[in-house]
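Supplementary Methods, section 5.1.

A reviewer requested that the exact input to the structure prediction be made available. We therefore reproduce it here, unchanged from the version used in the analyses.
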Amino acid sequence: MAACAYPLAGHASQKAPLCYRGVNLSGAEYGDRTGTYGTNYTYPTEATVRYFAAKGMTVIRLPVRWEHLQPSLGAALDVDELQRLTDTVASIRHNGMSAIIDPHNFAYYDKTRIGIPPVTSVAFAEFWARLAVEFANQDGVIFGLMNEPHDIPATDWLKAANAAIRSIRAVGAKNLILVPGTAWSGASSWQDDIIGGANGTVMMGIRDTADNYAYEVHQYLDTDSSGTHATCEGAETAINAIAAMTSWLRETKKRGFLGEFGVSSHKPCVEAVDTILKQISDNSDVWLGWSYWAAGDWWPHDEPFNVQPHGGDERPQMTILTRATAVEGTAPPSCLASPQPRG
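The structure derived from this sequence is encoded token-by-token as follows.
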């Protein structure tokens, strides 16, 4: 396996291209455990995957639902759902992109939070052991531990995250792992004590025997950084948050990934995203890359953040995203190889 092209965090080096520039393809996380495939939720089509590959994207973050993959805690993964996931990952890889498998559950299983029986840290770790063994050491496959944990103290989330990482490594998987914090894993709140300690302090307790992980943060540009408004009163806050996160990563010799950000087509919003993407590109010694929220075959055309093409029309946001991928250039082939520890 080739060494990964990105430089080591905290080491002075010539600016290298970001390995990962892409988009979230939403749809497989829709519905609840009773949802029916094709009716209540879907996976991205080959045409959609091919479209974003043609735009120069190098990674797809693929939200999935824990309950669909594992209908009963501690039990085997659902054969049909696992096949759908496997086929989609193969499609992403066939089109030359990496795939981030993202259990999009906000640290809940059904309506029970991780850490509360029966959804214990052990149950979460067991799920990841089953999932990891299916994709262990596959080139271009990245494990995102969990989307936006919230309502869980940072210390409890650290325990669960470390348990999952131990399980992933125990089955022999050396894949890159993306580790979020609690409190929605917001970049703007990374160093704030919101629930059970600040992510920037508590999550330094991550332990990985392979030393092959990065911290995943999300950042939106609306007034409360929630991504629920089409306006961008929080643009300056978001820009400052990425700058602060960059400093934290460099000071702690860690690596980061911006897993979600999104804006409407309003000109000030698009311009602010352009600034954020330049920040990340200019600091590729600590940032692995980014994935925009969102696109997907079932996303409504009038959803303001949506960049899924409809009828040949492209959103203004795609202009910025495509330009950012073009500035970076073609990702080195080693970006698609099984990522290596920092060693």
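The CA atoms of residues 185 and 217 lie 5 Å apart. These observations are discussed further in the main text.
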